[in-house]
Request: fold
Amino acid sequence: MNATAPGSAAPNDVMDVETFYGIIQMDRLSLWMADSSGCWSCRRLRERYRRLSRVYEGRVEFCRVGREFAPVVCDVLNVGATPATFAFRRGEALDWPWPDGVPAKSEAQYRAWLDRHV
Reply:
């Protein structure tokens, strides 16, 4: 179940596999962050997602899965280290170029990739 409504200007906390599969099947691009609560890089990435979700509201679905609250979804995504990022549209994984270490990339790089895929 989502903690926030889809399309709201904040990443959705997705806790179950059924919601995950429902969102990745949408026509709209979905960007997924897998994180851990004690991870400093994860906190930085969550802030970036909050900013980007306001910019791309209604065009991109920003979602978050945490090892602590969504371990089954993390297993489905085959999450290794956190943070990790994944992108989907219509059930297909997209070519997200920075699966690990994403906070080191600039917000402009994120926007350039998103603009190509929105």
